[in-house]
Amino acid sequence: MISKNRIAAGLVLALSLATGATSALAHDDAYLDTVKAPNGGQLRMAGMYHYELVLPKDAKEAKESPVVVYLTDHAGQKIPSAGATGTVTILAGKLKASVTLQPDGDNRLKGVAKYAAVPDLKAVVSITLPGKAAEQARFTPMAMAMAMGKDAPMQKKP
């Protein structure tokens, strides 16, 4: 015989799933800013993936600098970048730069853009994996780094 507690627990679970309570399990930007990114960048959710944007902090004046994005799933497992395409639009001060990303390693996409690592730098990353729809994420990597009081470059040498 099934106990009343088991029935109640099953009903609570069913109602939670039916009402969308699973969205509480998703990682929002505030939560991801508390997580140490594996490559020293900033993490953001993009659909069912995590994107980690890694930019060097030492570009105080606009200059050609690397733009690197790492792809993982919600559990931190690497997502292969082979066949993926991507773009990053960077707004830094009065400058706007767009860069095309190319696969560069197992779960990494890389490009080069001219930008300055200013505190108000914002970036929009859009990546299309083979056979999938494009996913986007918005980043504020320099603001996060400054809030954490870090002066060392965010970029780990690829």
Can you tell me about this structure?
Helix content is 16%, strand content 37%. It has 158 residues and is α+β, with helices and mostly antiparallel strands. It has a single domain, classed as Macroglobulin (MG2) domain (Immunoglobulin-like). It has an eight-stranded antiparallel sheet.
What would you say about this model in short?
Helix content is 16%, strand content 37%. It has 3 helices and 8 strands; from the N terminus they run H-H-E-E-E-E-E-E-E-E-H.
Work out the helix count. 3
Order of helices and strands: HHEEEEEEEEH
Strand content: 35-45%
* Number of structural units classed as domains: 1
Unreliable stretches covering 5 or more consecutive residues: 18-24, 151-158
Reported CATH architecture:
Sandwich
Question: How many strands?
Answer: 8
CATH C-level category: Mainly Beta
Overall spatial form: globular
How much helical structure, as a percent, in the residues? 10-25%
Strand order of the largest sheet: 1-2-3-6-5-4-7-8
Q: What separation lies between the terminal Cα atoms? A: 59 Å
Going by CATH, what is the homologous superfamily?
Macroglobulin (MG2) domain
Largest sheet: 8 strands, antiparallel
Give a topology summary:
Elements: H1 4-18, H2 29-32, E1 42-46, E2 49-54, E3 63-73, E4 85-92, E5 95-103, E6 108-115, E7 122-128, E8 135-139, H3 141-147
Antiparallel strand pairs: 1-2, 2-3, 3-6, 4-5, 4-7, 5-6, 7-8
